[in-house]
């Protein structure tokens, strides 16, 4: 399901390919949200020749042209990687608009796989194309990866203006040729950091691959988010890093103690080094009830 916020059309549902044109109760229309400065600009244009009455029909056209650039501030989408045809409608809509008319700032993407036991090809190319289309305006991104999906290679897209990123990973599919957890960030690394404006990062993982993901984000060299200020890590008790490794990453301790956990020892990862700009670190331990999703303690 994809919700598109606009002036006239409030919601587009991709799965059912239907459009809702009626604003629900308590939803303020685009005209009501229009700032006074914009109305002043519109009336300044239509009253320039002294015949305001004859130019009033132009108000609708002016308003549509001006507001069209901010018609899609937020998008929520669920993509099933086993049936990518459902992505087509949204792609066509975005591609049909000029770059300055698809200024999506906030995006929530849920990637699922309805055929968990079937062989899965990586959705990286499709998802990367999807992100590239709005990379010039995207500031907030939440990527929720359901089990049996492949982590996309987001580092290939320079998300220059992204300021807040949430990654939720739960039992991703492994591609043997790349190794465990090497789908999101793998060598060669880009010359410039892909997330230069990123300030807030929330990593949520329920499998050992999350450790590799975290080490990729916080390499001692070539940091991917060099100016990060807020970091939140949510993971199962057994998959959290030892306290001394966090101390080393923060520069409090010079050398971590040797790893004693068999799980941690088998995960391919590099030492952590948090950026000097980091101001807040929240480590959240979770428990996983039998047959359920991890929950905060």
Automatic annotation (TrEMBL):
The protein's name: F-box domain-containing protein
């Amino acid at each position: 399901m994809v919700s598109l916020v606009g002036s006239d059309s409030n919601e587009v549902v991709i799965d059912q390919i239907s459009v809702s044109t009626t604003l629900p109760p308590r939803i303020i229309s685009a005209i009501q949200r229009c700032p006074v400065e914009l109305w002043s600009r519109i009336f300044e244009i239509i009253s320039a020749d002294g015949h305001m009455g004859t130019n009033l029909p132009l108000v609708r056209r002016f308003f549509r042209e001006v507001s069209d650039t901010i018609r899609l501030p937020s998008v929520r989408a669920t993509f099933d990687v086993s049936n990518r045809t459902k992505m087509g409608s949204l792609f066509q809509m975005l591609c049909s608009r000029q770059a300055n008319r698809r200024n999506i700032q906030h995006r929530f993407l849920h990637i699922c796989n309805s055929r968990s036991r079937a062989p899965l090809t990586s959705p990286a190319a499709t998802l990367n194309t999807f992100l590239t289309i709005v990379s010039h305006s995207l500031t907030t991104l939440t990527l929720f990866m359901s089990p049996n999906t492949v982590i996309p290679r987001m580092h290939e897209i320079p998300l220059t203006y992204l300021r807040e990123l949430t990654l939720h990973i739960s039992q991703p599919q492994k591609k043997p040729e790349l190794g465990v957890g090497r789908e999101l960030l793998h060598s060669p690394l880009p010359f410039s950091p892909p997330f230069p404006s990123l300030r807030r990062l929330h990593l949520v993982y329920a499998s050992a691959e999350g450790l590799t993901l975290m080490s990729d984000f916080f390499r001692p060299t070539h940091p991917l988010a060099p100016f990060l200020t807020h970091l939140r890590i949510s993971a199962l008790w057994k998959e959290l890093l030892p306290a001394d490794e966090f101390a080393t990453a923060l520069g409090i301790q010079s050398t971590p103690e040797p790893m004693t956990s068999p799980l941690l020892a088998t995960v391919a990862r590099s030492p952590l080094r948090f950026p000097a700009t980091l101001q807040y670190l929240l480590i959240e331990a979770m428990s996983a009830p039998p047959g359920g999703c991890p929950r905060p303690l």
